[in-house]
């Protein structure tokens, strides 16, 4: 199992669906109410599935879960990068949207790495610098 950090005892992760809001907004602007409802439900189900998979893999704390965002923590070394990529792929399969993930030794670092993932083109997992080396 690839460890995501060598110095922290707890790892934080910020999962965010890519372009979920704009896709919903387009459906609403086009008065596609049922399509918006169906789309929103698929994103909600996909996010719940992500949460279930993370909890089964060893997440110790769900900090926030709503919309297309999920912020969690787990003990260092308990969840692999492979698992995170599989979870993101499952979100895509269920919702039709990709997912960006920021990983960090603190909630702030996870949020910063999520922002970096979005700036790098989305559909990425960004780790703390020393974990990527």
UniProtKB/TrEMBL annotation:
Domain Minimal CRISPR polymerase span(s) in chain numbering: 12-126
InterPro entries for the chain: Minimal_Cpol, Rev_trsase/Diguanyl_cyclase
Protein name as annotated: Minimal CRISPR polymerase domain-containing protein
Organismal lineage: Bacteria, Bacillati, Actinomycetota, Actinomycetes, Streptosporangiales
